[in-house]
Design goal:
Length: about 100
Amino acid sequence: MEHINFDGLLIGIATFLIIGLFHPIVVKAEYYWGTKCWWIFLVLGVAGTIASLFIESVFLSAIFGVFAFSSFWTIKEVFEQEERVLKGWFPKNPKRKYPNK
């Protein structure tokens, strides 16, 4: 036990922070742009995936992987956020038209 490895703990903390950061981003993105912004998260996810594959540091590669798949998950969440808005759980943007569901 000469060396304590903090990488796993730091990756866990970074994962928690990345996921926590994406929640308000989903809410704001849906409010201002609706579901039309899904492609931005696709681009971010692909960029994060590519970065993860080419970064030599296992720690940074893992962080970029978490970022990439959080971006992919956000695509689904933006569409679900619209449903939550239509149910009245979140405020509607008065400057935008919503689908009648």
